[in-house]
Amino acid sequence: MKLCNLLSFLPLLYLGSAAKCGTWYTSDCFCDTDVRYCDEGQNGASDDILDQHPLWKHMQGFYKFEAYNFAFGLYLGSNFAQTNPYIGYLNHTIVGSRDYQHRYDILPPANASDPTKCGYIYDPFVASLPDYVCGENGILYLFEGFAVSTNERDGSLTTTPNLVTLGSEGVTDSYVISEEDNAKYKMVPVDENTLQGSVDSEVFLVTETFIFTNPERTEASSMQDVYAKTGENQSVLVQSTRFKFTKIDEQSFKDGLIADLEANNIVPSLRPDAVPMERTCLNPQCPSEENFCQIDPKCTISKYQEPEATIKAGPIVGIVCAVFAVLLVALYLIHRSAMARQKERLKDVFAKHVVQSLGIGKGASADFFTMEGLQREFNQIDVGEEGGDGKISKKELHAFMTSGKMGDVSDSDFNTLFGIIDSDGNGEVDFIEFASFMGDIKSNIEEYDNDGFDEHDA
Asked: Staple partner for 309: which of 26, 142, 289, 322, CB 3.0–4.6 Å?
């Protein structure tokens, strides 16, 4: 197995540099179990919001709402926020990976007799309007939010300061959250009826919950809380807004918004150009394609990239071991064939020595191969220092093989020959082993004349 592992390293050098995940010899693709690692369209992966969670299909559309706003000791820029309830409209549109929300907050004319409303207008935005008359005109605030899906592909949305706007027609500085705030945005579906959202920065925290309140999902409520961060690990609730939404169709949205703008005598300079809107946003400055593509997964590179595949050791080792096994079998067969040829050659060599030394060959008498004849031949070899002990030693056989006209036999051939005759490998040849071997070479002996040459020798 160690040799197989060593040999398997060689194909790894080739396969590892260009291996594709998910093949029989490579690791599984992350995309098989995690769509974040898939290309769009692969394994059902999609960057489109509506494909990622069913809640968004229910949420998109047109709404009319009633709202209650409560401020807790912190001025947030509006005389009118204290007028409860107030009404508004929401247009929520989803296109591909992008989410567009346009909210019209309609605040009725202030009570002219209330000095806290018309005695001093402390909202610089309202105070700057040339056609505004306190007590006669209502105010329209436009809130717009733009978000995109995320690389998580779990239905959550996110945004950046450049996609979060607040303002109205004629207001050029509509961005309310700067890059310096280091805000983190998140909108996460909880189920098919509930959405949780948050904006967390160094100076404030906004939390929002949206939930459908009837089975038909035509009624919903939302709660939005704003906290100011006053110190380390401390925050104070400064504003809370409650919304009650009713889903309506596009025509009702258009007719209702126009009617309520008129009914509340909204300042003409604040009224939208067209209802319904005819461009991406209501504010003069809309997010650009460049703004969207800072975070839109359709035009950015995902952080989830399929890692380079690794080679599975098992299949490669298995193949290499199989090849190695076939190679061993082939080598074994070649070796076996070579040994058989060598054995036949050495049997010929020994037969020549027998014919030459014992004077037998073609026409040898039949009793030469009887037990008595073989015993006589055995005794003629068993003549060394240990002669007559009934065993032919290696030294005695070597003396026999190097005598006569045949000359020396190489050590390698002799050792192999002795191993062939000494079948039990005890280092000595007994009579049974000798007789058995002589039986094997009987046909070889009969091919030679008494001088040890066959009829083909010159």
From this structure: 26
pLDDT of residue 456: 45
Query: What's the rounded Cα separation, in Å, for the pair 127 and 137?
Result: 12
How many domains is the chain built from? 2
Whether residues 376 and 250 fall in one domain: no
Q: What is the pTM of this model?
A: 0.65
Which of 268, 292, 316 terminates a domain? The answer is 292
DSSP letter string over 127-186?
HT-TT--TTT-BEEEEEEEEEEE-TT-SS-EE--GGGEEEE-TT-S--B-S-GGG--EEE
Domain extent at residue 166: 30-292
Q: Which residue has the higher pLDDT, 158 or 312?
A: 158
What the block records as the tokens of 238 is 């400064």
**Which tokens go with 61?**
């559309």
Nearest to 146 by CA among 271, 288, 250, 272: 288
Give pLDDT tens digits for 82-96: 578 999 999 999 999
Beta-strand runs (E) in 352-401? 391-393
Is 305 a member of any domain? no
CB atoms within 10 A of CB 116: 11
Contact 416, 403 (CB under 8 A): no
| Residue 121 and residue 266 in one domain | yes
Residues with Cβ < 8 Å from 235, sequence gap 6 or more? 205, 227, 228, 229
Q: Which of 405, 400, 385, 407 is nearest to 434 (CA)?
A: 400
Residues 350 and 240 in one domain: no
Rounded-to-integer distance, Cα 80 and Cα 127, Å: 13
Cis upstream peptide for 276 (omega within 30°): yes
Reported as a single tens digit per residue, the pLDDT across 125-144 is: 777 788 888 888 898 988 88
From residue 185, give the alpha-carbon distance in Å to each of 149, 161, 397.
Answer: 12, 9, 98
Selection from 102, 117, 60, 65 nearest residue 86 by Cα? 65
Query: Helix 313-358 crosses helix 431-440 at what angle (to 10 degrees)?
Result: 90
What are the beta bridge partners of residue 221?
Answer: 211, 244
User: Per the structure block, which two tokens stand in for 213?
Assistant: 């309140």
User: Helix, strand, coil: what percent of the chain each, to 5?
Assistant: 35, 25, 40
* CB contact at 8 A, 45 and 38: yes
Q: CB within 8 A of 339, min separation 6: which ones?
A: none
* Domain identity same for 92 and 210: yes
Q: Give residues with Cβ within 8 angstroms of 255, minimum separation 6.
A: none
Q: Is 35 helix (H, G, I), strand (E, B) or coil?
A: helix
What's the CA gap between 360 and 381, in Å, rounded?
Answer: 15
Res 394 pLDDT > 60? yes
